[in-house]
Design a protein that fits this description.
single chain, 441 residues, alpha/beta, Aspartate Aminotransferase, domain 1, Aspartate Aminotransferase, domain 2, seven-stranded mixed beta sheet, 12% strand, binds pyridoxal-5'-phosphate
Length: 441
């Protein structure tokens, strides 16, 4: 055969930038270079022993599971998620899939119409629309509002896009947010939910970082708009189980037709999530005190490390609200624009990320990967380039900021913790500071 022709709609589809940077950094490291990896967001902690023990016990389970997932897992997952995401309504069906990324894709595929896309947002939402061939209605957000959507802006964009002949039917909302680290409070969610109800918009609420919210509990928009919200979540972030590939979608019973299509898509594509994995994560959906403690400890470490990076970058005068969850931040280096252009010929976030990697060995992701304008000099920094076991052990032996310490003492204990347990994060930050303050400002 001399070749095949790729479907035109897929010719623009590229390999995921987060996975790409990870592979590039791995190759760079294999060649012996030291890289400070602020480009990829994989939670680094070891699998909790209760889950690890479980998996070997189920290795003999070789039957297919039902397409929507094992009954007991679905029941437990619903109860657990309703509680953890503070949703006082149990009118939801549960779909288990191979990661929430796949479930988000399947929901986009199932629901007709244009996607309302707050920009910046996570890297995969837009590429997924290339596959589903959906149109995107962009809602540009900026640092002045901490990149957060509000009801009035959403309403304006819906009305305006309808006037242009567009058909917005679904909104993707992610909180705590990747890339910005921001989250939404109850009043903000209630307002967004009310607008969506008024205009009959489905909310795809990506809440994968719900249990990595810092110092405030997470509440889902599904609490305010249960009939029109599909919540997606999983185990990849708070339990560091990305490679298990297990995600969950809560679908309102009133959207039974969506649930049925999701089930059918599963039955004709991945069939079901791996059986030993479904069994082994049963325990992740019950309130096991040891696992709860582990989740709290891992989240506390993410909080300490992420705030360390945020504080360190303050000297650069980059105005940016303190992250509220997850393990990311999204600084805007606009104030360095002239020096970057004059000294290095850097004009876009892609050029900035590439120049940083080449000159400082710090890997980041450019804002373009999140749907931002190329000229916006924004980078997503992730804060997980450390050995999770070392950090967890040290944290358990001597948690920084123990009760009774002053704020300043807590801060200096946290700094010492990061510098000792997460040295690549500390060095990566220092290199960023040197790059901007030395060479570019
Ligand atoms: C915002 C967001 N949503 C969804 C996912 C997908 O998670 P998974 O497919 O592992 O459940 C990720 C993973 O990086 C993410 O950052």
């Amino acid at each position: 055969m001399s070749g095949v022709s790729i479907r035109p709609s897929l010719r623009g589809l590229k390999f995921s930038p987060t996975l790409l940077i990870n592979e590039e950094v791995a190759e760079y490291r294999r060649q012996g270079h030291t890289v400070y990896h602020m480009g990829f967001g994989e939670s680094p902690f070891p699998v909790h022993p209760a889950i690890q023990d479980g998996i070997s016990g189920y290795s003999g389970r070789n039957q297919y599971m039902p397409a929507a997932g094992m009954g007991e897992l679905r029941t437990r997952a619903r109860q657990y998620i309703l509680k953890k995401h503070s949703i006082d309504n149990d009118e939801f069906d549960v779909m288990i899939g191979p990661g929430s990324k796949e479930l988000i894709f399947d929901i986009q595929l199932a629901v007709d119409g244009d996607l309302l896309f707050p920009a910046p947002s996570w890297v995969s939402y837009i590429p997924q629309t290339l596959i589903t061939r959906d149109e995107v209605v962009r809602i540009p957000l900026g640092p002045q509002t901490s990149y957060k959507l509000d009801g009035a802006v959403l309403e304006r964009r819906i009305v305006e896009s309808r006037r242009e002949g567009r058909n917005p039917t679904k909104l993707i909302l992610n909180y705590p947010n990747n890339p910005t680290g921001m989250t939404y409070g109850p009043a903000e969610l209630e307002e967004i939910g009310a607008v969506c109800r008024r205009y009959n918009i489905l909310v795809i609420s990506d809440e994968i970082y719900a249990q990595v919210a810092f110092r405030s509990s997470h509440r889902s928009i599904a609490h305010f708009y249960p009939e029109g919200t599909i919540v997606t979540t999983g185990l990849s972030k708070h339990l560091s189980l990305g490679g298990f590939r297990l995600g969950v979608a809560l679908v309102p019973r009133r959207l039974e037709s969506v649930f049925q299509v999701l089930r059918s898509i599963a039955s004709e594509t991945f069939s079901a999530v791996s059986t030993p994995i479904q069994y082994s994560v049963l325990t992740a959906f019950e309130e096991n005190p040891a696992i709860e403690r582990y989740i709290a400890e891992c989240t506390e470490i993410h909080d300490i490390v992420t705030r360390y990076v945020w504080r360190t970058l303050q000297v650069l005068g980059v105005d940016y609200a303190e992250p509220q969850g997850g393990f990311y931040m999204y600084p805007d280096f606009d104030r360095y624009r002239h020096r970057l252009a004059d000294s290095f010929g850097v004009h876009t976030s892609d050029e900035l990320a590439r120049h940083l990697l080449r000159t400082t060995n710090v890997a980041t992701l450019p804002g373009t990967a999140f749907g931002d304008e190329p000229e916006a000099l924004r980078l997503r920094l992730s804060t997980v380039d450390f050995d999770g076991l070392t950090a967890l052990t040290r944290y358990r032996e001597d948690p920084p900021g123990a009760a009774g310490e002053t704020r300043a003492a807590c801060r200096s204990a946290e700094n010492a913790f990061v510098e000792a347990a997460c040295p690549r994060v500390a060095e990566g930050c220092q290199r960023l500071v040197n790059y901007f303050s030395g060479g570019a400002s």
